[in-house]
Amino acid sequence: MEKIIFRKFQIESKTFWMMFFGLGFFILVGYLCSHYMETEGHYVTGMNNQIVWGLPHIFAVLLIVIASGVLNIASISSVFDKKLYKPLAPLSALLAMAFLISGLAILVLDLGRPDRLIVAMTTYNFKSIFAWNIFLYSGFAGILAIYIWTMLDRNVKKFSRPAGVFAFTWRIVLTTGTGSIFGFLISREAYGTAILAPLFIIMSLLYGTVVYFLIVKAINYFQKTLFSEEILQNLRKLTLLFLFANLYFLILYHVTNLYISKHLDFEKFILLDGGIYTIAFWVGQVVIGLLLPLFILFRDENKSESSLMSATLLILVGSFLAMYVIIIAGQAYPLKIFTNYEILESSFYDNVIHTYIPTIWELGLGLGGVALSLIIVLIGIANLDFLPTIIKSPEAKKVAESDS
Amino acid sequence: MSTDIKLTRRGFIVKSISVLSTVYFIPDLFAPAQAAKPLHEEVKSDTKWAMSIDVDKCASGCTACVDACVEENGLYGFDRPETDSQWIRKLTIKDIKTDKVKVVPMLCQHCENPPCCDVCPTGASFRRVDGIVMVNQHTCIGCRYCMMACPFKARSFVHENLTEQVTTAPRGKGCVESCNFCVNRIDHGIPTTACEEACMKEGHKAISFGDLSDPNSRVNKALKIKQNRRLRADLSLKQRVTYSNI
Lengths: 404, 246
Known about the structure:
By secondary structure, chain A is mostly helical. Chain A has helices at residues 13-40, 55-69, 72-78, 89-109, 117-122, 129-152, 160-183, 196-222, 229-259, 264-273, 276-299, 305-332, 360-383, 393-403; strands at residues 2-7, 341-346, 387-392.
């Protein structure tokens, strides 16, 4: 008879510390980069008065979007009561927590005044979706902590379903809030549409699912955890479904913009003559991020794990470029201040397509953030019983004893 | 003796909460400092500062308004045009239908429904009752969301350490800033902006500033002479800066 028990990450001490210090190095570099940007000022970055949000925001928004989506597995287990996923739920919640914290860390460290975080935490303008997001993000972290507790502690296990339902609801609102950061910007043609909210939700579902798969595969490289063929095939189906949904909402977003006549020039810019931005959109967001993974998953009749892995890697590259298009290209297109006039000259670059070349400091901060999320996961699974493992029943007691 | 000074658990909790709440709440009991609050009187709600710009009077090649703004607010740059602050700038524009070329000063439009204030998470971007939209340099966290929201690109982010600040216009690295209708002048009873003054000195008189509530103000006179219009009227922001001959 087989039994599922939760175990800590069984990894050699040397390998653990190598990973720990490797990730720690990136985190240190990330912090030093942000410190340099703070002391010198943002002129050392590629950001300026034209492109005000840059590479750190691409990393931060992507990590926050992933944080919401990676909770899928826990949601399927708790909200939709699928027993198959129950053992995988705690890890899913841990990942959500890790990606959320790291995304927020990047956002905060890129502020002009990161030392005023306390102001952001105590002074609110409730008309601002940004202020709401501060509540949504910190609330999500708290809810996740409770959710993880209810899943890991047998004494409070009965509360795990309501906690899961609450976390599910919260994260849908959270991603709506993240999408609305852009959706509420009425002045820029790339933004200012409510479709961005559901687009962000569907992106989070896709990216979260593949990131979960990738991390479980990485853990399985060291330690055999429960990851049945059935779950693998289900993740594959989910990925396919989310790819289609993503494509649908992306088309809908652009068709809506094409329908609004004052946004036509922007659409022409993104779809036809925007140079690097058009390439990033078609090659990165559409082909690499959506069409190729769809093609690979459809074409593979054996439904192998390797095809899902290829699709996953492509989707992740595409996700980064999708954020690049949304965040950078949206700002690169100049504001239309005059309706009947063309701007010929300006000392403030009002009449040009803005360019953005990130510097090493921004990249360092972004990679430091990614490393932070991974180190949180590493510390979490190494110290708490997050990983479901199948063992024969008589051995269970022995393993449990040796683990404790 | 030692029992007299023994701190019980209850005592410790009560004292800790008392001290912490004192530290936390006392600052809130006093009215917080307000940036650019009038020195000798309250900001009046019946005062409505506004500006009218006659584009036909704005001379090509003239940068008097820009220079005056730089001097008034200490906006000395670092020869890095992409990151240096600009509170007012001159644009050369061409009518799409007639090909007629004009020059236009562009600055914060001091909207009655300002998107920058709507999006600011801390409320650092705020609108005074007299209509001036400005940034509280003490609570701006430098998120730049207001810059994303402004339809006129009127805001600048301070990208580096400042050395030549003027005492009348506090600025700081890592904060966002923009035209504040020379609020320091206004609050000291000088009802003109540096740009308007410079434009008048040059003899162009393209900029007219004043109180909309005062029928004799320069801005009201300018509004009576020529029909003014708002930029991006489709956004319904009700800007207090309006343009004629555009």
